[in-house]
Write a structure and sequence with these properties.
210 residues; alpha/beta; Arc Repressor Mutant, subunit A; two-stranded parallel ribbon; globular
């Protein structure tokens, strides 16, 4: 009995060492936007399925807590964005991750104004590495706070939409909220098997045409 109590106390002490993070979500026609915040600011934004499973969190050294005041600003910013407004530049971020190059790329991308798109090559130039176009794409793929660092506004020089970690449907949707600068062809996802088959067919057709 004493052994079990000691084990429980040790487990509780271990939990206290885990970093607390709060989670909130906003529903959109494209799916769910989930924000993950510390007391200092926004840490992560997930588009679609949220990567907030408790077991995975413990492996990352964090635990999820209920702190509405931590997530209120980020949640309001996501709602504002989905209603056609820019994310406030004053939204506090808590980003300790990223290499110096990645952080330069994220900073250059965050400076791209609402309603505009730029090329990967232009972001590379603004980040001080004009030849590192492919590395810019990789850095944007590691962006922990899409929408806030608006990597959806970065496209290929030829005008094609480029890539996006959360999927091109999300990129088209986010761009469409800002005025539809490109021929985006974003549509609200269909429900049911028929819709999934049609979506898969369109994706296969696009892949075959490349």
């Amino acid at each position: 009995m004493k052994t079990k109590k000691r084990a429980a106390k040790a487990e509780r002490r271990g939990q206290l060492q885990l970093e607390p993070l709060a989670v909130a979500s906003v529903r959109t026609p494209a799916g769910t936007i989930t924000v993950v915040c510390s007391a200092a600011g926004l840490r992560e934004v997930h588009l679609g399925a949220a990567e907030t499973r408790r077991r995975e969190a413990r492996a990352r050294g964090i635990r999820y807590v209920r702190r509405p005041r931590w997530t209120a600003g980020a949640k309001a910013a996501m709602r504002r964005f989905t209603r056609g407004g820019a994310v406030p530049a004053t939204l506090p971020l808590d980003l300790a991750c990223g290499t110096p190059f990645q952080r330069r790329v994220w900073e250059a991308t965050r400076a791209v104004p609402w309603g505009e798109v730029v090329s990967y090559a232009e972001i590379a130039r603004r980040a001080g590495a004009p030849r590192a176009v492919r590395a810019v794409g990789n850095a944007l793929g590691e962006n922990p706070v899409p929408i806030v660092v608006p990597c959806h506004r970065v496209v290929h020089s030829g005008g094609s939409i480029g890539g996006f970690t959360s999927g091109l449907d999300w990129k088209r949707y986010l761009l469409s909220l800002e005025g539809g600068q490109l021929e985006l062809e974003w549509r609200k996802p269909r429900r049911g098997v028929l819709g999934l088959l049609r979506a898969a067919g369109r994706a296969a057709g696009r892949a075959g045409g490349r």
